[in-house]
Design brief:
The protein has 475 residues and is α+β, with helices and mostly antiparallel strands. It has helices at residues 2-5, 248-253, 256-267, 306-314, 331-347, 353-363, 389-403, 405-418, 426-437, 442-448, 469-472, and strands at residues 42-54, 59-70, 74-80, 85-90, 93-94, 97-100, 103-112, 117-126, 141-143, 146-149, 170-179, 183-185, 189-195, 200-211, 218-221, 223-229, 235-241, 275-280, 294-296, 322-324, 422-424.
Length: 475
């Protein structure tokens, strides 16, 4: 590793990192879509983030405590992190650290055997809006009343040091100190919002289910926070920007418990301990942030829209609980959530899943770019496009048509149960579907999931456009 260290720039106010073993892994997990994302050699169990935000200067001050277990012998740990670190500790001892191109290397100060539990601490204070020559444009959004850290496929490295890949999930404990009168919203359970004598309030959130980094979020500003409890005792926290106009967003998001009950009938018990939603007035895409999806006001621009709620809450099963193992598997998240919208339409009498599938199939001509890639390998270009959403849903409907409703829904429920709070691949889902069906489904998955091109389907009827079609495709 000495050769790898030679290119690193020592971070300001941090001691030079000690040399590591030549066998230590370098930065990046080697995911084909994002090779430098994530890091090898360890598995994170828990992040504890103690943050303070000053909106007048857009400065975020933080102390991150990361509990991890080594999976091989290590003498240093890489983290994805774009803010300049100020200090680092390993198991309570001051150590050196160095940063370059969005990677932070923290020296262990010793050789650490595989299977060892280690606590890494990193301190930092900077404006996440700050950029420099070696960094991409920050995804941190400074707003008129605060700031938002909500984006995909990566956002976390702009506000805490992280192993930024969905294959490494962890629990979270996040405290954010902001001026009293401002709200700070994140994932999980709201433990408290305690005002201090210094004119600041600390908001404390705990996520006790394993969580992938890209579905963590932070929102600070002026929000109307509404708390309630579901009939079965689950806390509900919804937060609406006070800059919102109209009632469509509230009318939709307040129906989250109803949507969850509907999804439980199809997918099995809700896998999280809490639920809710966050609505901002800014232009963006809805995002399945764990337990509490983030919605832009634009999702409700033409009126109430429970389809987007059904989509994002379906992700709590598929995408958040059952997370992808690599980015090419993203249809296991987006295709399943899109199909949940079709099921919601079916239940509300605005078009059956078959009608929507038939219409979607005919809507995209054979030479449309949606068919240029395989669902299980959409390439980074189509990571969040129709090649994943609509084609993923079409693949699920093809499975439902092939095996029948009883087997299909049993497949979804048992898949969600067996893979709960873990990770999965497309090949694993195909094998699992065959196991439940008790027969070979190779041709179906090869045609609909693992191959490019528009599948040949005989006898697709010409039907009217389902009433829900426009709302389902409103993104």
């Amino acid at each position: 590793m000495r050769a790898k260290l030679s290119g690193l720039v020592v971070a300001a106010l941090v001691l030079s990192a000690a040399p590591a073993h030549a066998s230590d892994p370098g930065p990046g997990l080697g995911d084909p879509y994002f090779p430098r994302a994530g890091n090898e050699g360890y598995d994170v169990q828990h992040y504890e983030l103690r943050l303070s935000y000053e909106p007048t200067t857009d400065v975020l001050t933080g102390a991150a405590t990361i509990r991890l277990t080594t999976t091989r012998e290590m003498s240093g740990f890489y983290f994805d992190f774009w803010l300049p670190g100020r200090w680092a500790k390993v198991d309570g001892r001051d150590v050196g650290a160095a940063q370059h191109a969005g990677q932070m290397l923290v020296s262990a100060g010793r050789d650490v055997p595989a299977g060892t539990s280690v606590t890494v601490e990193v301190g930092y204070s900077a404006s996440p809006s700050w950029t420099h020559a070696e960094s991409p444009i920050t995804k941190w959004r400074r707003t008129a009343d605060g700031a938002l850290a909500i984006a995909a496929p990566t956002m976390s490295p702009w506000w805490y040091p992280v192993n930024d890949h969905p294959s490494d999930k962890a629990t979270y404990d996040v405290s954010i100190s902001v001026p009293t009168g401002m709200e700070a919203i994140s994932n999980g359970a709201l433990v408290g919002a305690e005002p201090g004598a210094d004119g600041r309030t600390t908001w404390h959130w705990v996520g006790d289910r394993p969580q992938a980094p890209h579905v963590t979020f932070l929102a600070m500003g002026q929000f109307d926070v509404r708390r309630s409890t579901t009939a079965d005792g689950k806390p509900v926290v919804n937060a609406y920007s006070t800059a919102l106009t109209g009632t469509a967003a509230r009318e939709s998001v307040e129906r989250t418990p109803e949507v969850v009950r509907f999804l439980e009938d199809r997918f099995g018990p809700y896998p999280m301990g809490e639920m809710g939603g966050l609505v901002t007035p800014y232009r963006s895409l809805p995002l399945e942030t764990q337990t509490r999806p983030a919605y832009p006001a634009g999702a409700f621009r033409t009126g109430p829209n429970t389809y987007v709620v059904a989509h994002e809450m379906a992700h709590q099963w598929f995408g958040n609980s059952v997370s992808i193992s690599r980015w090419s598997d993203i249809w296991l998240s987006e295709g399943f959530a899109t199909y949940a919208e079709w099921l919601w339409s079916e239940a509300n009498g605005e078009g059956t899943a078959r009608e929507i599938a038939d219409w979607t199939y005919r809507y995209y001509a054979a030479d449309h770019e949606i068919w240029d890639v395989a669902v299980a390998d959409p390439t980074p270009r189509y990571l969040y496009g129709a090649a994943v959403h609509e084609r993923g849903a079409l693949a699920l409907h093809a499975l439902r048509t092939e095996v029948g409703d009883e087997v299909f829904f049993r497949t979804l429920r048992t898949w969600a149960e067996r893979k709960a709070h873990g990770n999965a691949t497309s090949a694993e889902f195909a094998a699992f579907a065959e196991e439940v069906a008790g027969r070979d489904l190779d041709d179906l998955f090869r045609t609909w999931v693992f191959s490019a091109g528009k599948p040949a389907v005989a006898g697709v009827p010409t039907t009217r456009e389902p009433a829900s079609f426009d709302r389902i495709n409103r993104r």
